[in-house]
Design a protein that fits this description.
This protein is of the alpha/beta class and about 300 residues long. Helices cover about 40% and strands about 15% of the residues. The chain has 10 helices and 9 strands. The chain has helices at about 25-40, 55-70, 85-100, 130-140, 160-170, 185-195, 215-225, 230-235, 245-265, 280-285, and strands at about 15-20, 45-50, 75-80, 105, 145-150, 175-180, 205, 205-210, 270. It has a 9-stranded parallel beta sheet with strand order 7-6-5-4-3-2-1-9-8, covered by helices on one side. Helix 4 (about 130-140) links the parallel strand 4 and strand 5. Helix 4 (about 130-140) runs parallel beside helix 5 (about 160-170) and helix 9 (about 245-265) packs parallel to helix 10. It is globular. It starts with 13 loop residues before the first strand and ends in a 13-residue tail after the last helix. The structure holds flavin-adenine dinucleotide. Flavin-adenine dinucleotide binds near residues 147 and 156.
Amino acid sequence: ELPRASRTHCPDIRVSFEFFPPKTVAMEALLWESINRLAPLGPSFMSVTYGAGGSTRERTHQTVARLAKEAVVRPAAHLTCVGASMKEIDGIVQGYWDAGVRHIVALRGDPPDGLGATFEPHPQGYKNSCALVAGIKRIGDFEISVSAYPERHPESLSLDADIDFLRAKVDAGASRAITQFFFENEIYLRYLDRLRAAGVDIPIVPGIMPMQNFKQTAGFAKKAGASVPQWLADRFEGLDDDPQTRRLVAATVAAEQVLDLVDHGVRDFHFYTNNRADLVYAICHLLGLRPKPEQKEAA
Ligand code: FAD
C-alpha cells in the first residue's frame, strides 16, 4: 500500500494567511504578534480584509502598507465595490501600487445592511466584482484573487450561474480564486471537478477556517451559505464553556481536513486566521511547514 500523501513530506505545499485590520491598540499588538509568528513559515502571501461597507479603508491600507514596507511577506489587500465611486476606488488602488503592493483580492462586498439585503451599486461605482477586476487591471498589472463559492453564493440562481460568474471574473483578469470556507471536502472536490469541466482553470485555493468559536462560526456559516454538518456540531458538543478543549478540537478538525485534501492532491491552502497564530501554526506544522530562519521579523 502506498503511503498517504499527508504522511510523507510534500515539499510543494503552499499556504497563505488572512487577517482583519485591528480596531484597537491591543488588537494591533495581537495581529503583529501573529504575523511575526506565521511569517517565518514562508507563506505565498498574507491578505488583509476590507471591512463591510469600506468601513476599514484606512486600517486595511495601513496594515497592508506596513506589510509591504517591512517586507515581512508579500501582502494582498482586499477591496470591495461598496460605498465608493470608481474614482475613489481607483485612488485606493493607485495608492496600493505606489506603496509597492501588487496583489488585490477583489470582491463585490455585501450591502451595508448585511447579507440578505439587495446589493445596490454606488451610482458612480463599480457595479460588480467583474467590473472591479477589470478596473484594477487598467491601473496596474496587479495579481488579482477573487472569491469562489463551493456551495454557491446565497444570491446566485444556481451553482452553474455561480460558475459562469467566476469564469467572467477570470476573463476580466483574475488569476486565483479563494473559496468560502467549507467543512466537507467532498463539496470542494466536486466543485473543483465542475469548474474544470466548465473550463475554469485558475487555482481554486480552499479557504480553511479553524473553528476558534464553534457557535459564532456556525452562525456566520448559515448566513454565508456554508453548511455545517451534524458530525461537526457533535464534535463541539458540550464545549461551550470549555475554550481550551474547544481550541484543541478545532485544531484537530482543521488538521484532518487539510491532510485529507493533501491526499486528494491539493497543495495550496488559504487560512482564515482570525488574527490568531497558534491553531494555524500547528496545522501548518502538520502540513510539513517549518520556519525559515532567514525570514525577517517586522519591527
Ligand atoms: P461575486 O463573486 O461578485 O458574486 C457572488 C455570486 O453572486 C456570483 O457568483 C453570482 O452567482 C451572483 N451574482 C453577483 N452579481 C451578479 C450579477 N450581476 N449577475 C448575476 N449573478 C450575480 N467581504 C468584505 O466586505 N470584505 C472582505 O475583505 C471580504 N473578503 C472575502 C474573501 C473571500 C475569500 C470570500 C470568499 C469572501 C469575502 N468577502 C468579503 C465576502 C463577500 O464580499 C461577500 O460574499 C459578497 O456577498 C459577495 O462578494 P463577491 O465578490 O464574493 O461576489
